[in-house]
Amino acid sequence: MGFIHLLWGFLFLIDIRINGIDVLPDVIGYVLFFLGFAKLENKSRHFRLAKNMSVVMIAISVMSLLISWASVHSWLLYFVVNLVVFVLKVYIIFHLCYGISDMAGRRGLHEFQNKAVQRWRWFIAVIAASFILILLAPLLSMLAILFAFLLMIASVVIYVMMMMLMWEAEHVFQR
User: Fold this and answer.
1) CB-CB contact of 83 with 115 (8 Å)
2) What pLDDT does residue 23 have?
3) Which range (21-35, 140-154, 158-172) has the least confidence?
4) What domain of life does the native source organism fall in (predicted)?
5) Which long-range contacts (C-beta less than 8 Å, at least 24 apart) are formed by 139-142?
6) In the 8-state DSSP scheme, what is residue 14?
C-alpha cells in the first residue's frame, strides 16, 4: 500500500552519526516518504499534502548534506535550517497520522484511528522538546547535555513507534 516505504523512511530519519557522518541520510528517508505517499495519495488528501512536502524535504536534505560536507560552522545557519526542517517534518507527520486516522475512521477502526492521533501527539511533544533544547542549550551547558541524551533516546523511541504504526497500518488496511 505504501506504508512499508514510510516505515523504511522513518528508519533513515533516525540520526546516527559516526565521526560526524550521518550513516542514515535523511534524503533517502524523504525519497521513501515520497514513494509511500505517492502510493497512498488517493486514500486521503492528507497523504497528498504530505507527498508534496516530502519533495521540499528532499531538496532541504540535499542542501543540508552539502552544507555539512562544506564544513560550514555557522550556528545561525544550523538553527535556521533545523527550524525549517522541524516545521516541515511536523507538517508531514501531522498529515501522515491524520491520513491514517481518516482511513481508519472510514473503516470503523476507531481504536486504530485514536492510535494514529496519539502517535502524532507523542511525536509533536518530542519535536517541541528538541526545539526548546536547541534554544536553551547555550544557557544550560551541562544540563543541556543530559536533556540532549534523554531526547535522543525519546527521538529513537518515537521513530520506532512510528515505524510500528506503519507496519500495523500496512496490515490493517490490506484486510
Assistant:
1) no
2) 84
3) 140-154
4) Bacteria
5) none
6) S
Looking at the predicted structure, is the pLDDT value of residue 142 above 90?
A: no
Q: So where are the chain's domains?
A: 3-172
Q: Containing H/E element for 22?
A: strand 21-22
131-135: which pairs have CB atoms within 8 A and are 24 or more residues apart? 131/83, 131/86, 134/79, 134/82
Cell numbers for 85, please give them.
526542517
C-alpha span between 48 and 25 (Å, rounded): 23
Tell me the C-alpha distance between 157 and 89, whole Å: 17
One-letter amino acid for residue 95 of the chain? H
Contact 67, 81 (CB under 8 A): yes
Report how far residue 8's alpha carbon sits from residue 76's, in angstroms, rounded to the nearest whole number.
31
Q: What is the pLDDT of residues 44-92, one digit of tens each?
A: 999 999 999 999 999 999 988 887 777 667 777 777 887 898 899 999 9
The residue among 78, 79, 38, 80 whose CA lies nearest residue 55 is 38
What kind and span of H or E run contains 17?
Answer: strand 17-18
Q: In terms of C-beta density within 10 A (0-12 exposed, 13-18 middle, 19 or more buried), how is residue 96 classed? A: buried
